[in-house]
Amino acid sequence: MWSVHLALCEKVFVEGISVYSSFFVHQDGLVLDSCREVMVRDCFMSTYDDAFVIKASFPQPCVNITITNCQATSRCAAVKFGTQSFGGFRNVSISNCAFDNCGLGGVKFLTVDGGDLEDVVVSNITMTNVSAPLFFRLGNRGQDFGFKEVTRPRPIARLRNIMVSGIRATVAPFTGWPQHNQGLLVGATMGIAGLPGHPVEDITLENIHVTYPGGGTLADARRANIPEREANYPENTTFGVLPAYGLWLRHARGITVRDLRLELAGADSRPAVVCDDVEDVELRGLRAPMSGAEPLVRLRGTRGAMMRDCRPAGAIENFVAIEDAKCENIALLGNDLRKVRTPLMKTGGFAGSVEAVGNLGFEKQ
């Protein structure tokens, strides 16, 4: 099982350990389980399963955790919150780390057992050859999982108040566990996924630079009605190939994305960003390429969206598509659209107005 498992511990200092656990399934590296006041620094993990795991198998939350100056390579994720998440997580800082060859993701924020995941800061991380560099998942497994004496605090938790900044990542074709490998692009897209009526809230992504392999098709781009799968074991591979190559948002509120720069190693027909049932979202300083006729940004069921200071990387056909009548309060402010053939598309019954101020090239519409 797990290589180093610290459970229900307080005031723990872990420094300078190296863990090599690449021989058997489920060999996580360092597991902090319902612990508090923990400092982890200058450690190296090479693992078959997840490298650094913060979980809460007990009613006690993980509180006041710091992980800094560490390195990891893993067949699974570099850092994972969960899967056991009964007690929840609060006040966690992860900084100044380097992750390489992590087949099931970079940093994954998962809460599916009723414990809240909140007040987390992640900063200054480099990642090479990973699948989704960031993935947020609020789920509801609907059953006790783990120790029999532990009960769920509530059916569905809250996932909120998280800031991620200073990320440089390159995404490699998927090389994780064979049972998840349904195609090379499965699990590659960064995602923020809540549940109907239970949005992921108040997430800030800032100064994020990700290079993707490309390869998404027009059929991938037009995927709709993606199953919720709220009771599934949570993974970045849960939803298959997503309809965005860069960032997919569903059931979310209060999302701020600043200075997101995306690059493609090969052509990709999917939009860079897709929002579905999202309220109060700001995309500021987006720089991203687009292949084909699909829009750079697609909005469905989105209320209160501001796109500001964005500039496509090269000439593209369409900037933003607003695709259903549920969308409202959309604003385009100060974007450079001079290399866009059609800055704004309205489809799917959307007949509302869009506030557009100070956009270069918008008069071409």
Question: What can you tell me about this protein's structure?
Answer:
The strands form 2 sheets. The protein has a 24-stranded parallel beta sheet that branches. A two-stranded parallel sheet has the order 20-22. Helices cover 1% and strands 52% of the residues. It is mainly β and 365 residues long. It contains 1 helix and 26 strands. It is globular, with a radius of gyration of 20 Å. Helix 1 (218-221) links the parallel strand 17 (200-212) and strand 18 (247-264). The chain has one helix at 218-221; strands at residues 4-7, 10-15, 18-21, 30-33, 36-41, 44-47, 52-56, 62-68, 71-74, 79-85, 89-102, 107-111, 117-130, 134-138, 159-171, 190-193, 200-212, 247-264, 273-284, 287-288, 295-308, 311-312, 316-322, 328-333, 340-346, 354-357.
The ordered H/E elements are EEEEEEEEEEEEEEEEEHEEEEEEEEE
Structural class call reads mainly beta
User: Which residues form runs of ≥5 with pLDDT under 50?
Assistant: none
Summarize the amount of helix as a percent range.
under 10%
The largest pleated sheet is described as:
24 strands, parallel
Share of residues in strands: over 45%
Radius of gyration over all CA atoms, rounded? 20 Å
Total count of helical runs of at least 4 residues: 1
Outline type: globular
Measured between the Cα atoms of the first and last residue, the distance is: 59 Å
Give the mean pLDDT: 93
Q: List how many beta strands DSSP finds.
A: 26
